Amino acid sequence: MDISYRNQSRIWNGWGNKDQKVFYDKKNELKNFLESRLGKSYSHKEISREEIKKMIHPRVQIQKPYIYQNLDIIIDYSFGQSFSDWIRFKMGYNLRFTDAVAIPSTIEELRELLNISREMDYKIIIYGGGTSVVGHITPESEKPVITVSMEKFNRVLNINQENLSALIQAGANGTEIETQLGQYGFRLGHYPQSFEFSTLGGWIASRSSGQQSLYYGRIEDLFLGGKLITYEGIFEVPPIPASSAALDLKHFILGSEGRIGILYEATVKIRKIPEKEEFLGLFFSNFEEAIQFIREVLQIKTSLSMIRMSFPEESLIHLEMAKYTGNKKIIEYLMKFLNIKGFKEHQFAMMILGFTGLKEEVSDAKKKVISLAKRFKIFYEPYLIAKKLGHSWEKNRFLNPYLRNILWDAGYGVDTLETCISWDKVSFLKRKIEEAIIEAADKYKEKVIVYTHISHIYLNGSSLYTTYIFRNKEDPEENYNFWKEMKTSASKVIVESGGTISHQHGVGKDHKEYLIYEKQKMGLNIIKTLIEKFDPYQILDNKNIIDQEN
Ligand SMILES: Cc1cc2nc3c(=O)[nH]c(=O)nc-3n(C[C@H](O)[C@H](O)[C@H](O)COP(=O)(O)OP(=O)(O)OC[C@H]3O[C@@H](n4cnc5c(N)ncnc54)[C@H](O)[C@@H]3O)c2cc1C
């Protein structure tokens, strides 16, 4: 059968587009660097696509022009991007597959799919861009499963210039949205790092946060209303700018993680494409002052659109790795210069600032922000370096995840975890998370590179985003247990310290056991009842958020 679908151009067992070869020529240097820090990697064999195909036995037989049971398409829609997914598609461990992939293009087909699933007792998984890092779209059911890809719902249907809003189909990904809005001079401004693949529906369903959230807001700040097809009919939230009419039903859709219905269109806020956008990089001599600066700068109104502060370990590792992925000479020169100026390694904190708005706003904001920063010891001049650092961040803002492919090939795994907590606990929790990961790795007699940054900031606190790189174990099960030990230890300290189990990735399967800390029993019961109201037959129950039976 000749089918054309979105994931054909993507790497099925890794991150990104097949034709994007960025960083591949740096593989050996990166491998040597990681070997020096973590030890020589183990040899490992990857499972091939042909081997995987032999294990798939689709249990769904439906003759519909938009439903496919072809083995290639099944592989291409059976995996997400969580570390467990990586162990599956790379090492063949604990493989699970969907039984069919539906690619509907009309609301009638969506309705038909809901009817078929109900009649046949099949489960449905709603698939946006498949970039979930917490197991959302990985099938987990005894019953046959149909994965419904929303990729044909990818159009901007209407731009209302007067209301500054756009009606957009929920399967449109970041590139599709911004390209279509851009033709009319508008922008949504939601830039998660997964932007090129993740979709409006996925962002809303998992409450995502884009890199410039300081200016554009999180997805819940951009989402005005939408339409969801459910087992109980169409659930519609009108796009009213603000309302005090009882509970806000928008928030039933936000964070629903595919459990209550299929969002097929949404109205979102848009803005004119900014006249000017600039990113600058600077260094603080220590992270305490950098945080102090952030808390102060938040209290003045400027057109700052992003503050990304790397703690000292991340600042250093980024510079070290940039020697291999970027221009080695410039980085060495920069590090020397920092040293001469008294900015000590393991102490300095790198910060990227983003400015967005009218030309005058940007220039005014830069003056105010930098003069505030200069009250602390900062490395900002020569301006050319600040500009170069900012430019380099901007250039690589969606490319860095491709490093995951190269590191895995070299024998090293990468995972990230994130939380949000009030300012008084930010530094404490950052330390606890990193210690928990290091101690967990130590139990497996392994070293781990751990580093953290702050990238979504609020008046009352900030997100923490921790990356950990480790040597993959040769045995898939041992590798899974090793990763799980680190993930569990970090998750425990997060919730025990009062942080959220997720600031932006959602709950999925990996975080659901920790949800009780934040929602408590009563909250979980309310969520469970709500899900049952929307999906009384539990057809959308792919074990995300909550286990219905417990
Ligand atoms: C390299 C990388 C970088 C990332 N960076 C960020 C980041 O900067 N910020 C951030 O917030 N997240 C980030 N993520 C996580 C991920 O991209 C987000 O969670 C994103 O919102 C998922 O969108 P998606 O379209 O890929 O959804 P999917 O992964 O396909 O699905 C996620 C969940 O949403 C549900 N869903 C999807 N579409 C619909 C719909 N139309 N109706 C109802 N339910 C639906 C699915 O059923 C599932 O439960 C990153 C992930 C990766 C791999």
Name given to the CATH architecture of the domain at 6-25 and 48-149? 2-Layer Sandwich
Strand content: 15-25%
Number of helices: 19
Helix content: 25-40%
Outline type: globular
- CATH-defined fold name of the domain at 6-25 and 48-149: Uridine Diphospho-n-acetylenolpyruvylglucosamine Reductase, domain 2
Total beta strands: 19
Uncertain spans, ≥5 residues at pLDDT below 50?
none
Cα Rg = 23 Å
Would you write up a description of this structure?
- The structure is a single chain.
- With 550 residues, the chain is of the alpha+beta class.
- Among the domains are: 6-25 and 48-149, 2-Layer Sandwich (Uridine Diphospho-n-acetylenolpyruvylglucosamine Reductase, domain 2), CATH 3.30.43.10; 156-272, Uridine Diphospho-n-acetylenolpyruvylglucosamine Reductase, domain 3, CATH 3.30.465.10; 276-397, Alpha-Beta Plaits.
- It has helices at 27-38, 49-53, 71-76, 83-91, 107-120, 174-182, 200-205, 213-216, 219-222, 250-253, 287-297, 312-325, 328-340, 359-373, 383-396, 403-410, 423-443, 476-496, 515-534, and strands spanning 67-68, 100-102, 123-127, 145-149, 156-160, 165-169, 186-187, 223-230, 233-237, 262-269, 271-272, 276-284, 304-310, 349-357, 378-379, 412-422, 448-454, 457-458, 461-471.
- The strands form 4 sheets. Strands 12, 13, 14, 15, 16, 17, 18 and 19 form an 8-stranded antiparallel β-sheet that branches. Strands 5-6-10-8-9 form a 5-stranded antiparallel β-sheet.
- A hairpin with a 4-residue loop joins strand 5 (156-160) and strand 6 (165-169).
- The protein binds flavin-adenine dinucleotide (FAD).
- Flavin-adenine dinucleotide (FAD) is lined by residues 15, 80-81, 126-133, 136-137, 150, 170, 192-194, 198-199, 201-203, 205-206, 208-209, 257-258, 262-263, 401, 504-506, 544.
